[in-house]
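Memo to structure team: turn this sequence into structure tokens by end of day. - J.P.
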Amino acid sequence: MLFNSYVFIFLFLPLVLAGYYGLNSIKKHKLALCWLIVLSLLFYGYDYQPVSMRYLALLVVSILLNFLLVEMMSRTAKNKWRRVCLIMGLLLNLGILFYCKYYDFFIENINAIFGTDIGFLRIVLPLGISFYTFQQLSYVIDSYKRDCEKYSLVEYAAYVSFFPQLIAGPIVYHDELIPQLRDMNKKRINAVCFSKGIYAFSLGLAKKVLVADTFSKVVTIGYQSIGDLNTPSALLVMVCYSMQIYFDFSGYCDMAYGIGYLFNIELPVNFNSPYKADSIVSFWDRWHMTLTRFFTKYVYIPLGGSRRGTGRTYLNILVVFFVSGVWHGANWTFILWGMMNGVANVLNKIFDKLYKKVPKILRIGMTFLFSTFAWSLFRAESIKQAKQLWDRLFHGGFGAIYAPITDQFQDMIEMKILYRAGFGSLIETQPWFFVVLFTVVAVMASFTMRNTQEKVATMRYTNRKIAVITFLVVWSVMSLSEVSEFLYFNF
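Reply from structure team:
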């Protein structure tokens, strides 16, 4: 089920909230938590297709097995058997992830290297498997380290399956969510939290539906017709994808953050205006923040972090970004993208003093240009396709924006309204104007506007703000006829 859908907004969300708070109001706290689990599983397996049911079963089984392993671990004081349980937990979670996400990629490369003809599984990637696998890994590892208190099966199942963060994050640690689910003060509606939740959800919905999905139309046409692009068109497509993934992921994070507030749950911040970063190091402190901290805690620090000398520190950074690239997908484009960011991070640290002498506004621009260039590889279906786009960027020549791009943009209902409002002549004579203007405004917004958590922290409802939010929600809901998945559902 998608946050940006009629069934979620008008049926599922009111139903789960009513049941949760209704049961808590009559002191059925455990039953309320069970209600949240059942509805979260319904959210996960909503379409009832056979493949969805299989992956819903996989989620349930993985929850039960991980809980059982930690229970076994807690019942023995012998380090030997605790270590066996840890290894079993690592093999279970990483094995399922490898089988579902990387098996065919591994076999494809084995066949290419050794000339074999091993068959593929053609597995459809289970939604959210990378996210809930990492959450369960953190639980198993922390339990082994004795950094985890004892939870009931119901509490643990609610932690893993909590629907706002189940499919695309944030990656939440057990000690961040379960204590909030236990807190008796959070089991009744809080007007302040509820209003914050509506505000954040509304902003996220607008980012996704009105901005990200608009850019996706340009990006789709561009990547389908790379050979026909000239230099301005290739540049536009690359910047549009940079904006699409920015507002798509920002929108999802805002909506998840807002839904959490509706339940009096404060989820960890996962997105903090990354295009305001003035270095690639700062960028990764702001983009997908919970993934960065996961890799820092469970990969970078165990490798030695920065404690074993400069050379080892740089190697550890490269390892983390290699793993990050692999985590995002079973394709060499993701691995190369990860290594590009890793090398950029290392170079940033090596030349830090020199780099900081550059004016900050130039550093922000350089960081944005690098991340935008890297995103073009991230979006490509293959390294060959990415190289083709780069070739059109540098050798495509100049001229008008590729006509199918402007035609697609002008086909939107908003453009038709502008046409009737008196902008018809401009649209006909300068078809590139509004798509370029929309892109420039979005870029400037990503550089200058406060992010949602900052707005929520200082939120005060005024008549003007209520009017703006109502307008955005109505506009977004009216645009839901073309429902699209969030990009991070693919990871």
